[in-house]
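Quick illustration, no need to memorize.
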Amino acid sequence: MTAPACGLAAVDHVQLAAPPGSEDALRTFYADALGMTEIPKPPVLAARGGCWFAAGPVQLHLGIEEDFRPAKKAHPGLRVTGIEAYAARLESHGVPVTWDDNLPGHRRFYAHDPAGNRLEFLEPDA
């Protein structure tokens, strides 16, 4: 009998950290600016603070870290459609975007959430 095939199937979610008391600012950014929907955390995890968001199959979990410091380089890469309009949406919410043309075959920009987490937004060239 052969063993069943095993391996990675997908990324379930990305966890980012945030400082204590930042949940309201995170909700404004992830729900209003990014257009994600807040999803409920299981009660045992909700007691720890933070908040979770989803958009289609994409989930971002923001967990509270007492001694939080945003990473300078680490970031999730989020695939978007209509990247120019998406950048304009963020800018209309007061979120600065920084375009980067260094990834062949893609348009991309970076932005930071209220906690200072770096986020990459990208769309393959048509």
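The chain has one domain: 12-65+73-122.
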